[in-house]
Amino acid sequence: MMQTCPLCASPDTGVYHRENERTYLRCGHCTLVFVPAGQHLSAAEEKAVYDCHENRPDDPGYRRFLGRLFTPLVARLPPAAQGLDFGSGPGPTLSLMFEEAGHRMTIFDPFYAPDETVWQGRYDFITATEVVEHLAAPGREFERLVAHLKPGGWLGLMTKRVRSREAFAGWHYIRDPTHVAFFSESTFRWLGKRFGLHPCFPADDVVLLQKG
Q1: Cα–Cα distance for residue pair 110/144, rounded to 1 Å
Q2: In the predicted structure, residue 2 carries a pLDDT above the cut 80
Q3: What CA–CA distance (Å, rounded) separates 144 from 153?
Q4: Could you tell me if residue 129 is inside a domain?
Q5: Is 152 left (phi over 0), alpha (psi -120 to 50) or beta?
Q6: Parallel, antiparallel, or unpaired: how do β-strands 181-182 and 123-129 relate?
Q7: Strands 33-34 and 13-19
Q8: 3-state SS track over the chain
Q9: How far out from the chain centre does Cα 81 lie?
Q10: How many domains are contained in the chain?
């Protein structure tokens, strides 16, 4: 099975893993592992999964989880920075945490907050927590996110990273039917070179990329 990579558009892709009815391809150029488009859920099926999520702003455990990205990112921001939470979900919480820290926030979610006017501005920082693994067209989305990031701004991402083929085969993360794109550290380093971003990795599932 061959398919163009949805991140870098390279045709250099091959089978990385197969399980049940899904095939996982790996790009030889940017190292993204991805599920072919023909095996993705429909938009309605995808939203039905998200509707079952029970993430609430008043849940201390959820706030601690988001703190893995919030804590290292907030320490790098200037006062009263303008941020965008991309893929804010049905219970926006990270945006509230940044507002409580004195920053100004806008949210966007294609299902729950589809306000396209957010793309009229540029931001000091953009966050996406447990979002990029859901992207069917990550190359297009990263191009848009970087375009709306100010010079010196930060792109903060939370997603679990691919470690090895052996670990991938037993990984619970790939069994979520809404997860279709899987990034490794080398994928994020490729992204940095492609878009002029400088990556750092403060946690196993967090990457911060600063726009040069």
Answers
A1: 14
A2: no
A3: 14
A4: yes
A5: left
A6: unpaired
A7: unpaired
A8: CCCCCCCCCCCCEEEEEEECCEEEEEECCCCCEECCHHHCCCHHHHHHHHCCCCCCCCCHHHHHHHHHHHHHHHCCCCCCCEEEEECCCCCCCHHHHHHHCCCEEEEEECCCECCHHHHHCCEEEEEEECCHHHCCCHHHHHHHHHHCEEEEEEEEEECCECCCHHHHHCCHHHHCCCCCEEECHHHHHHHHHHHCEEEEEEECCEEEEEEC
A9: 21
A10: 1
Q: For residue 154, give the CATH number of its domain.
A: 3.40.50.150
**Given this model, what pLDDT does residue 1 score?**
56
Please check whether residue 29 is in contact with residue 7, taking contact to mean a CB–CB distance below 8 angstroms: no
Q: What is the mean pLDDT of residues 146-150?
A: 98
* C-beta atoms surrounding 61 within 10 Å: 9
> What does the CA dihedral 43, 48, 50, 51 come to, rounded to 10 degrees?
140
Q: Give 9-49 pLDDT, tens digit per residue.
A: 999 999 999 998 899 999 999 999 999 999 999 999 999 99
Whether residue 159 lies inside any domain: the answer is yes
**Residue of 109, 36, 90, 98 whose CA lies nearest to 71:** 98
Q: Is 7 within the bounds of a domain?
A: no
In a domain, 1, yes or no: no
CA dihedral of 174, 175, 176, 178, whole degrees rounded to 10: 60
> Could you tell me the two tokens for 201?
């990795």
Spatial neighbors of 122 by CB under 8 A, at least 6 apart, are: 148, 149, 150, 153
Q: 140: domain range?
A: 13-211
Tokens of 155: 């792109």
